Amino acid sequence: MKLVTFADKLSGRPGALLGSGDVIDLRDSLADRLDGPLWTIADLLGRGAQAMAAASELVSTADADPTHAQQQGWIVEAAEVTLLGPTGHNPMLWTVGPLYPAHMREMGLNQTEAESMSIALRNANSIIGSGESIRLPSAAPDMVDWEGELALVIGKTAHGVSPDDALDHVAGYTIYNDVSAREHTPAYVDELNQPSGASARNATLNLLYKEFPTFSPLGPCITTADEIDAESLVLTTRVNGEVMQDFRPGDTTFSLAEAISFASSIFLLKPGDIISLGTSTGLGYAQQPPRYLRPGDEVAITVDGIGTLRNPVVAPG
């Protein structure tokens, strides 16, 4: 099942993609099957297995024969759909790393293997959906880069879970673009390669310059975990149609389960929260010469079984 949030007149509504590409409105169609109105996809995840089963049955029925759903006015044609961030709320969003040694080498770091994981909290107000525009920031428009990432969506409350139990807390998977303005990255990388390490100032600025509005494209949907073999997925990032990244998100130093366990050792994770797993090689920063996003560009990140997160780039507003 592929869960989405789509725009209506006032806000976002929870839905699911049909095989036709149309969307079925889960708020209206599940009203008689759930205990109270369904407001968001995060709300659906939080209601547990029974609610998810009801949604899955509804989607399967509509896929087989959409007549009843169409008569009820539950189906929105694909051409009329504007996608938003897929959970339908501003989730807690973390990125875990460094999980890809090749990415560290590409960035010019001396380390070839990560001895331990780190975690960073992202600004949920920066989340946009597929089709929405990445806006270059007026404060730092010249070195904006892409980072295609696979992200996990939490389906059950978790804190202090073991790696053995971690994947049981995953509702599904989506795609994340960790857009980054690189103005402070060269100094940060240079300092990391020195015996003294990086200064707190440059480390902080390197992270803060990932937090501008529109810098967290997410989507296009959440594909439920029962339909995904996360270890075999391939992620491809294209800029204006040219392949820039092509890697397997499962080929990490630490397993996906270890990443979830690590995050939960610190944070209380709730349904709808998101953990992104970092990126591999193929960034604009590492090109010779470096290549950064410009107005008129389009970034498209594809993962089979999930879809394509597609975002145009526009000038500072």
Automatic annotation (TrEMBL):
Q: What is this protein called?
A: Fumarylacetoacetate hydrolase family protein
Source taxon at top rank: Bacteria
| Record domain Fumarylacetoacetase-like C-terminal: where | 94-314
Going by the UniProt record, its keywords in alphabetical order are: Hydrolase, Metal-binding
Record organism: Gordonia prachuapensis
Q: Which family does it belong to?
A: Belongs to the FAH family.
Q: Name one Pfam family in it.
A: FAA_hydrolase
**GO molecular-function terms, A-Z:** hydrolase activity
Q: Does the keyword Hydrolase apply?
A: yes
